[in-house]
Write a structure and sequence with these properties.
- GO terms for molecular function: polygalacturonase activity.
- The protein is mainly β.
- The chain has a domain of 256 residues.
- The chain contains four helices and 39 strands.
Length: 565
């Protein structure tokens, strides 16, 4: 665990509580206001106006359709009938009142605002018979999965609003790894039933879940919704699935305890997600918070995340299928969010084969998040990630990297020099399957404790390119390490190392400029290596530097390094 110090003072951010909504005649127009109006923001790209859904004031109550609260009696028919009647009559509001409601999959319809009152707790049943196998998507590819607890396909003008809680009963679906539980928790889980993997390190809720994950060679060669039925518990759905929908609003509610990913809009346009709480147990397998996948035009604002995998994640399909679909995630503004536990606070990848572009991120806070800003891919993905702006990012107590670029995700492990972080990778031929990360801008980044400040692991045939860092104050154990990067600029960099080491090291990188840098706690300011390194300019903030004492450079590339007074 990172020890917190007071070296950097980061102002606490206070967020307003989720605003209340009127219980009658609810419309999106009268819902909680956005903290930042996108149309009034100065953005670095041309942003279309986000179309927010509007609804008639006609209101239906699920109780009038036979829903019974505070029992285990399923309300599936009542909820879905109310939604269908509302949509068929031209739209309006379907109200879920306060109370505990047990239900199967909720199927949204066009022109419906599903509004949950304060005190409404919607629990999705553990009875797997209620979730039919369907042709769906996961990780960007077409697959057979179970129906999602909340789902909608080819809809327009839809919303889920209010202050209610939707619980996906994910523990009934998810495998659990032994390393993520205490001895007592693990013993209790194993004694509850289920099946252990051969190495007894993974618990599965059923034999079908075990076979579907551990013995895939036993699965049908040509899977269908019929022959995959015995293994359906392995085919975990995302909790909130909207596919090819337009004008979507999610406002104020809590989504928690999902079977797999939590909220996953796919190929949708005009999205407004605000004032949400998205939660999963920290040990939840594939327990992502929000996955925006091949979507365009939208805003995410004033949301809270505490999840078991990546929190705010931008995706666009996987490998050839994603490239062939060719739908990038683009034109999004993400502001004023807080992330607690997650593998990554804000993430792009690794399924980014359709591309990601024109994303503006501002005022995010990460507290105890495993990694802060995370960008990941691997050879074979393809896709272009470009034109990403991030500013006013605060991080506290980050167990790994504050900022990480990893172009070897799921690839074979690399052999790194323990002191410098240098790696040497064989160059491959550039093709459509080569991932590209370029044109990214970081401004006002403040980190109060991380294992490492910044790590860039590019690939030699396509280095991470044109990345600008401005105004960064970072306290960490290890400083900055870069491999296979090009056109990298630092300006106003303040590093405070808790362990003696190299402040900034890079290898096999070109056109690197470091201006106005200070460091405290280091025993070496710069290390420069790699046979392909060239055009390096170093300028500290008033400190005179000399080679060997402050800067160690591979002798064969010494002429490529310039010291600027």
């Amino acid at each position: 665990m990172i020890k917190i110090k007071t070296t950097i003072l980061i102002a606490a951010t206070v967020f307003t509580a989720i605003s209340c909504s009127n219980n009658k005649g609810i419309t999106a127009k009268n819902g909680s206001s956005q903290k930042r109006n996108v149309s009034q923001m100065e953005l670095p790209f041309k942003m279309p106006e986000i179309q927010i859904p509007k609804f008639k004031t006609d209101t239906l109550n699920i109780v009038d359709f036979g829903a019974v609260p505070n029992t285990e009696e399923l309300c599936t028919t009542a909820i879905n009938t109310a939604i269908s009647k509302c949509s068929e009559s031209g739209g309006g509001v379907v109200v879920i009142p306060q109370g505990l409601w047990t239900t199967g999959p909720i199927k949204m319809k066009s022109n419906v605002n599903l509004h949950t009152q304060n005190g409404a707790y919607i629990s999705f049943t553990a009875d797997l018979k209620q979730y039919q196998l369907i042709e769906s998507y996961f990780e960007g590819n077409k697959v057979i999965r179970c129906e999602s607890p909340i789902m909608g396909v080819d809809l327009v003008n839809i919303a889920i609003t209010g202050q209610g809680i939707f619980d996906g009963n994910g523990s009934n679906w998810r495998p659990v790894k032994i390393g993520k539980m205490t001895a007592n928790q693990w013993s209790e889980l194993v004694n509850s039933g289920g099946v252990l993997s051969k190495d007894r390190k993974i618990w599965y809720p059923s034999q079908g879940a075990y076979t579907g994950n551990e013995e895939r060679e036993k699965l049908p060669k040509t899977p269908t919704t019929a022959n995959m039925e015995p293994y359906k518990q392995a085919l975990r759905p995302v909790m909130v699935s909207f596919v090819n929908c337009k004008k979507l609003l999610l406002d104020g509610v809590t989504f928690q305890n999902s079977p797999a990913w939590n909220v996953n809009p796919l190929m949708c346009e005009h999205l407004t997600l605000r004032n949400l709480t998205i939660r999963n147990p920290w040990y939840s397998q594939n327990g992502d918070g929000l996955d925006l996948e091949s979507c365009r035009i939208g805003q995410v604002t004033n949301c809270r995340f505490d999840v078991g995998d990546d929190a705010i994640c931008i995706k666009s399909g996987k490998d050839k299928e994603g490239r062939d679909r060719g739908k990038p995630t683009e034109l999004f503004v993400i502001t004023d969010c807080v992330v607690y536990h997650a593998h990554g606070g804000f993430v792009i990848g690794s399924e980014m084969s359709g591309g990601v572009r024109d994303i503006f991120v501002k005022n995010l806070t990460f507290n105890g998040t495993d990694c802060g800003l995370r960008f990941k891919s691997v050879r074979g993905r393809g896709g272009v990630v470009e034109n990403i702006w991030m500013e006013d990012i605060r991080m506290n107590n980050i167990p790994t990297d504050a900022i990480n670029f990893n172009l070897y995700y799921f690839g074979k492990s690399l052999s790194e020099d323990k002191l410098t972080g240098e790696v040497t990778v064989v160059k491959e031929t550039v093709s459509e399957s080569t991932p590209v990360f370029k044109n990214m801008y970081f401004k006002n980044i403040y980190v109060n404790g991380a294992a490492q400040a910044l790590k860039i692991m590019g690939i030699p045939e396509m280095p991470v390119e044109n990345i600008q860092f401005q105004n960064m104050i970072i306290r960490s154990d290890v400083g900055i390490q870069m491999n296979y990067a090009s056109k990298i600029d630092f300006k106003n960099l303040d590093l405070r190392l808790d362990k003696p080491g190299i402040a900034v090291s890079f290898s096999n990188s070109q056109n690197v400029t470091i201006e106005k840098v200070t460091a405290v706690g280091e025993n070496q300011m710069f290390w420069v290596g790699g046979a392909s390194t060239k055009d390096i300019s170093l300028k500290t903030n008033g400190k005179k530097m000399t080679f060997d004492k402050d800067i160690k450079v591979l002798e064969s590339i010494k002429d490529e390094v310039k010291l600027i007074e």
